[in-house]
Amino acid sequence: MHDPQALRKIVILGGGTAGWMAALPLAQRLRRGGAAPVIELVESAEIGTIGVGEATLPPIRFFNASLGLDNAEFIRRTQASFKLGIEFADWGKVGESFFHGFGDHGPPIDTRSSYAYWLRLRHEGAIGALADWSVPTEMARQGRFTPPLEGPPSAANAYAYAFHFDAGLYAAYLREHALAAGVVRTEGQVVEVERRPGDGFVSALRLADGRRVEGDLFIDCSGFRALLIEGVMQAGFEDWSHWLPCDRALAVPSGRMAQLPPFTRSAATPAGWTWRIPLQHRTGNGHVYCSRFMDDDEAARLLLAGLPTPATDVPRPIRFTAGRRRRCWVGNVVAVGLSSGFLEPLESTSIQLILDAVGRLLMLLPDRSFEPHLAAEFNRLMARQYESIRDFIILHYTLSRRDDQPFWRELRTMPLPDTLAHQIALFRDSGRVAVLDPDGFAEPSWVAIMNGMGVLPRRHDPLTHGIDAAALRGHFARLREAIVGTVRTMPSHDAFLAALAA
Ligand code: FDA
């Protein structure tokens, strides 16, 4: 039966990664759900896109699968490589490094994490480094990759993976599918926004050439401009730069690396950090830094000096402020992507925020009555996610033991958000991790950063004493052997990519 209140038209403003990541699932899911409003996406080639954003988190695989994308074709079209985690160099101290892998440090034992038992043994005497029981860490060390096997938990499948890809190619690839799914694309620059008298809802976008684009629901994917959510609806911005003071980035591509590591590399610098993202056709590099502590020339010099291959362009500057929109959904405008906020790309969370926002919008899709509790729920979930990611990123700075630079001294000693102060205190006392966001970074990730930064909790879980120490040591020794043996049989990352291309 026809619903008289059903949405008739959805307008997406912006054709960057966010715009096309919203357009395709909306077009597919709405049609399957029996609602088929027109979806029109407005983008401006003249304005362009931000043009960065290459590393992702494992749920991107399920997002792609839900869209029916063919994995091998996706990898070819986006020049993707596989990502098992992030190597952090010089973060804890200059010369130290650790790995945040996508996976736990062994299977749980009697409802307790493997880490809890490792910690008990560590308190009782010597045991190998925790990272020795992380399968993705061992794979990264050996430069190997193969997808995890299906079946019961074992050394052969105790990991997840994500991708590095060329975000511009990814957006173009999604666009192709979205157009085939019926999305209407309009090229033009929005110069004015019309609003309904009374409730102030957006009713139409006016383009520079005079065309009008009307709609019921407007998705703001206009990037840092936040044209609708802030420019029109004035959602407000919660500024977090007192916790995350990095405010600039330089991005530069360089040639392809001879061997592609299956991980992202992040190296701390005197006032920020650099990224290195291996793709099949080039390497993505960048430097995120704090302008109060480093000037642009020095940032560029350090970036260029650390490139793994010769630069193929000049560094491109980007400015930003860390924080989030107070409300991501106001009236009939929903912000997705950079228009909803920004946190530095240290843990590759922006594309994840996009796909979660799109998923939530589909779960909470309104009709034309725009029942306000839908927006309230969307805003609650987005706020929780932004805050937990914020805390996770600050964790990397606050745990640093670097005191060689004023930037690091300031970040080590700054006051923390209450939620993070609680998380760190809980972990230092007991080795336990609070769940700040059930959909966000899970316990193994928090443990990887805390342990990698040298935090050894004072006590361990009292419920880990049901197994005697010798048996437990035997368990960890056998597990380590199985991990090393299994990883040794895996193909190299390059060989796996080559086989996929063939
Ligand atoms: P984007 O700016 O790409 O798109 C905006 C769109 O709106 C464009 O199509 C533009 O033309 C359009 N538009 C704007 N105004 C308009 C107007 N008036 N009329 C018509 N059209 C208009 N993320 C991640 O997951 N992993 C990573 O490794 C990184 N790395 C990274 C590094 C740096 C330095 C930054 C700044 C960001 C990242 N990101 C990231 C984030 C990632 O780049 C970002 O989340 C996605 O590219 C999404 O960007 P948007 O689509 O929101 O904006």
Automatic annotation (TrEMBL):
<dbReference type="InterPro" id="IPR050816">
    <property type="entry name" value="Flavin-dep_Halogenase_NPB"/>
</dbReference>
<keyword id="KW-0274">FAD</keyword>
<feature type="active site">
    <location>
        <position position="83"/>
    </location>
</feature>
<dbReference type="InterPro" id="IPR006905">
    <property type="entry name" value="Flavin_halogenase"/>
</dbReference>
<feature type="binding site">
    <location>
        <position position="83"/>
    </location>
    <ligand>
        <name>7-chloro-L-tryptophan</name>
    </ligand>
</feature>
<dbReference type="InterPro" id="IPR033856">
    <property type="entry name" value="Trp_halogen"/>
</dbReference>
<feature type="binding site">
    <location>
        <position position="351"/>
    </location>
    <ligand>
        <name>FAD</name>
    </ligand>
</feature>
<keyword id="KW-0547">Nucleotide-binding</keyword>
<feature type="binding site">
    <location>
        <position position="338"/>
    </location>
    <ligand>
        <name>FAD</name>
    </ligand>
</feature>
<dbReference type="Pfam" id="PF04820">
    <property type="entry name" value="Trp_halogenase"/>
</dbReference>
<dbReference type="GO" id="GO:0000166">
    <property type="term" value="F:nucleotide binding"/>
</dbReference>
<protein>
    <submittedName>
        <fullName>Tryptophan 7-halogenase</fullName>
    </submittedName>
</protein>
<feature type="binding site">
    <location>
        <position position="190"/>
    </location>
    <ligand>
        <name>FAD</name>
    </ligand>
</feature>
<feature type="binding site">
    <location>
        <position position="347"/>
    </location>
    <ligand>
        <name>L-tryptophan</name>
    </ligand>
</feature>
<dbReference type="GO" id="GO:0004497">
    <property type="term" value="F:monooxygenase activity"/>
</dbReference>
<keyword id="KW-0285">Flavoprotein</keyword>
<feature type="binding site">
    <location>
        <begin position="15"/>
        <end position="18"/>
    </location>
    <ligand>
        <name>FAD</name>
    </ligand>
</feature>
<dbReference type="InterPro" id="IPR036188">
    <property type="entry name" value="FAD/NAD-bd_sf"/>
</dbReference>
